[in-house]
Amino acid sequence: MYRKVIFPVDLSHIDQLDKALKIATDLAHHFKAELCFVGVTGTAPSALAHTPAEYTQRLEKFAQDHGGTSGLNTSAKACVSSDPAIDTDKTLLQAIRDLGGDLVVMQTHAPSAVDYIWAGHGDTIAAHSEASVFLVR
Amino acid sequence: MSDTNENESAEPETDALPEPEGASDIIDTEYEIGQDNVTPKIGPFGLDIHNPVFAISGIVVVAFVIITLAFQDVVGPALGDLRGFLTSSFDWFLIMAGNIFVLVCLGILVSPLGKVRIGGADATPDYGYAGWFAMLFAAGMGIGLMFFGVLEPAYYFATPWGDQPLMNEIGIVDGELADPAAIEAARLSAMAGTIYHWGLHPWAIYAVVALSLALFAYNKGLPLTVRSIFYPIFGERIWGWPGHVIDILAVFATLFGLATSLGLGAQQASAGIGFVFGIEGAGESVTFAVVLIAIITALALISVLRGLEGGVKRLSELNLILAMVLLAFVVLVGPTAVLFGQFFGNVGAYFSEMLALSNPVGRDDDGFRQGWTAFYWAWWISWSPFVGMFIARVSRGRTVREFITCVLLIPTIVSAIWMTAMGGTAIDQMINQVTESAVYGFVVADYVPELSLFGMLSELPFAAITSMIGIILVIVFFVTSSDSGSLVIDTITAGGKINAPVSQRVFWVIFEGLIAATLLIGGGLVALQAASVSTGLPFALVLLLACYALIKGLMSEPR
C-alpha cells in the first residue's frame, strides 16, 4: 500500500525518537517500503554540524546504521534552509513531495497552550501534506 | 586552531569533518555551539539562550533606559557631550580607520584572496542577485538615504554655519545667490562630500564585518556571532569573557541603534504625514508617533514570523522597486538633462576630492569633519555588527570578489545615483528659487531636516503620490530594519544558533518597539542614540583587529 515511508528527524533530539522510529520501522517492514530519513539543517554552523555537508554525512550515516540493524532499505535526504527556525515545515513538505513519500511518520511533542499560537511541526505537516501522516506523541 | 599548526600536513585533521562544500579550512575547536546555552521555560514558551550574553544584554539595556528616564537632566547632556567629545577628539582616528577599511577591502578585491568562496569552494549562493542586493541595501542604508538624500547635499550647498566640506564655497550667501562659478564649485563640493559619506567608506565598514563573520562561520565552522571573528587573535579565550564582552557590546549597539532610530524615525514619519496631509501638530504629537511605532512593530512581527525568505527578502525587494520608482520619477520629472550631465561630474568630484576629504589631520573644516564625517563613521561602525551580521547571513555561496563588488562597489554607485537625483534636484530648486524654495526653508531658514525630502517632492508634480511613496518607503525600511535587527540580536544572544525558538525573535521585536515608545514618551531618544553612536569608537578599534583576523583567515583558505 505504501512504498516510501518518510521519517522527518531532528538529529539533535535523536534520543527522544525511539517510539516513533520503532513505529516507522514496523510500518516499513509491513508494507515492504523504503524508509527515508529527512532532516532540515541551517546554513550556519550548529552544535550538530559545522556545515551542511557535515550534517548530510551524519544523516546518511544514521540512515545507513538503521538500515543495517533493521534490514530495511533506507535512504537519507538533508535539506538546507537559510532560516530553519521558520522554514522547517515548508522545507519538509517540499521534501516529502519531491521524494514521493506516501506515508509520513513523525515524532511530535505533547500539545500545550503554545499550539494555539504556533502549531508543532507535526501538526503543520499533517494539515498540509498530501501523504498520510502518522503523528507519534 | 588549524591554521597555525598545520600547513602541508592538513589532511588528517580534516578527516573527521567533511569539507563544507568543496575545500575550506575548518577551525578545529573544542567549543560546541550552544554549549553555554540555557533552555529555560517561561510559561509554555521554551527558550534557548546564551548564558550570560542574553541576560547581561537585557539587564544593561533595561538599566540604561531606566537611568536615562530617571535622570534625564543629567544623563541626556552627559551622553550628548560624550558623543561630541569622542567625535571631536578622535575624529582623526575614525577617519583614519575608515580609510584603512576601504584599503583592506580594495586590497582583498584585487588580490588572489578574492577567489575564496564563502561556504567552501563548491558552495552555491543561497539567494539570487536581486534578492541579495535588495536585502543588503535595505539593511545597510535604506532609511538613511531617505532621510539624508535631500538634506545633506542641500545643507552643504547653502550652510550658513560654516560646516561645508573642506571650507569650500557655498552657493547661497545671506539669502543671495553666489556668482555662477561659486555655485558650481559649491554644488560639486556638496555632492562630493555627500557621496563620500555614503560611498566606499561606510560600505567598506560593513563589508569588513560581514565578510569576516561569513568567513568564520561558513568556512571555518565557528558560531555565527561577532566574537568568532576574533578567534585568530584570542584563540579559545574567545568563548569566555573577551567574547561575551564583544557580543554584549554588539547587542547593545544594535538594540539601541535600532530602538532610537525607530523612535526618532517615527517622529520624522509623523511629521512627514502631517506635512503631506496637512494635519496640524502631527509632528509634535507623541501619541501619533507611538501609534506609528506600534504599526511598524506589528508589521515587523508579521515579517519576522514569515522568516528570512517570506519576510525580510520580500519586503526588501518591494522597497527596492518602490525606491527605483521614486528615483525614476524624480529623474524624469526633475531637471532630467541636468541630472544626467551632473552624474559623472559628481562621481569625478568624489574621486578627486577623496584624498582631501579622507585626510585625517591638518584640516580646518571642523564643522564638517567632526560634526558630519566623524559622526557618520561612528554611526556606521556602531551599526556594523547588525548590518554586517545580516549581510553575512545572506551571502553564503558568493566568492570574496563577488562579495566586495556587490557590497562595496555597486552600493557606492547606487548611492551616488540616488544622491545625484535627490540632492541634485534639491540644489537645482535652490538655484532657481533661492530662498523661495521649500528645501531652502526646511534645510537652511528653519532647520526641519525630516521634511527636506518632502519639501523637494512638493515642488514636483504629483507631490501627494510621491510623498506617499516616500512615507511608505520610510515605514517599510523601518520594518525591514526592525525585522533583520531582531534576527541578528536573537542569533547573537543565542550563541550563534539560527534555529532558536521563534518566540525569542518575537521578544526582541516587541522589546525594541517598547524601548522606542518608552523613550519617546519619557524622553531620552537623542541621549541613548548618542550612547549607541559612542560605541562606534571602541568598535573601530575592534574592527581594525578584525581586518587582521580577516586577512589571516582568508590566507588560510584554499583558493
What is this entry, summarized?
The complex is a heterodimer of chains A (137) and B (559). By secondary structure, chain A is α/β, with parallel strands linked by helices. Helices cover 42% and strands 23% of the residues of chain A.
Spans of chain B with pLDDT under 50 lasting ≥5 residues? 1-18
- In helices, the fraction of residues of chain A equals 40-55%
Q: Count the DSSP helices of chain B.
A: 22
- So what's the CATH class of chain B? Mainly Alpha
Q: CATH topology of chain B, which one?
A: Sodium/glucose cotransporter
Any overview of this molecule?
The complex is a heterodimer of chains A (137) and B (559). In chain A, 42% of the residues lie in helices and 23% in strands. Chain A is of the alpha/beta class and 137 residues long. Chain A has a five-stranded parallel beta sheet with strand order 3-2-1-4-5, sandwiched between helices. Chain B has helices at residues 2-5, 11-14, 53-70, 72-89, 91-110, 129-140, 142-158, 180-198, 200-219, 231-234, 241-277, 286-305, 307-333, 336-357, 366-393, 400-433, 438-445, 452-458, 463-493, 502-522, 525-534, 536-555; strands spanning 37-38, 41-42, 45-46, 49-50, 172-173, 176-177. Chain B is globular. Chain B starts with a helix and ends with a helix. In chain B, helix 6 (129-140) crosses helix 13 (307-333), helix 9 runs parallel beside helix 15 and helix 18 runs antiparallel to helix 19 (463-493). Chain B has 559 residues and is mainly α. In chain B, the strands form three sheets. In chain B, strands 1-4 form a two-stranded antiparallel ribbon. At the A-B interface, helix 2 and helix 3 of A face helix 13 and helix 20 of B.
